[in-house]
């Protein structure tokens, strides 16, 4: 049975945080289920989110709610294997909107650690703002 695999205890790392203000804009805000908090990257490209799940899981889809004007463009997902080698899973192209967007993996993948990479942004300076991140699937 599928469910959300990310929560306040999820292992999340990000490429940067705006003005290094972790308490205001850190990665914990991606999964805190509060509508008024967010991860806000600093400027520059690429930006990324690394997700380290508690256990190997079958991942079906990723859901992201950006702030319009600060959305990712030309994005991809890479998995990291047990030897820390990266493998490309899929490319995806978000819209520059505030609503929740769903990105289904082309084939269910068994993952424990992966990165969502935002190669560029709709913001001139390369900043990304995300209010919500959900990884849906089931532990193996």
From TrEMBL:
Superkingdom: Eukaryota
Domain F5/8 type C: from-to ranges: 1-64
Keywords from the named record: Nucleus
A GO CC term assigned to this protein in UniProt: nucleus
Subcellular location(s) of the protein: Nucleus
InterPro entries: FA58C (IPR000421), Galactose-bd-like_sf (IPR008979)
Family: Belongs to the NR2C2AP family.
Protein name as catalogued: Nuclear receptor 2C2-associated protein
Species annotation: Magallana gigas
């Amino acid at each position: 049975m599928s469910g959300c695999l990310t929560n306040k205890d999820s292992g999340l790392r990000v490429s940067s945080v705006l003005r290094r203000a972790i308490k205001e804009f850190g990665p914990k805000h991606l999964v805190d289920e509060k509508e008024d908090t967010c991860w806000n990257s600093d400027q520059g490209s690429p930006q990324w989110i690394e997700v380290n799940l508690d256990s190997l899981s079958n991942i079906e889809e990723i859901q992201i709610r950006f702030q319009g004007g600060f959305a990712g463009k030309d994005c991809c997902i890479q998995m990291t294997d047990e030897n820390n080698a990266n493998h490309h899973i899929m490319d995806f192209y978000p819209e520059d909107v505030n609503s929740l967007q769903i990105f289904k993996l082309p084939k269910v993948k068994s993952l424990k650690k992966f990165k969502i990479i935002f190669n560029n942004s709709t913001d001139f300076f390369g900043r990304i703002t995300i209010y919500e991140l959900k990884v849906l699937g089931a532990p193996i």
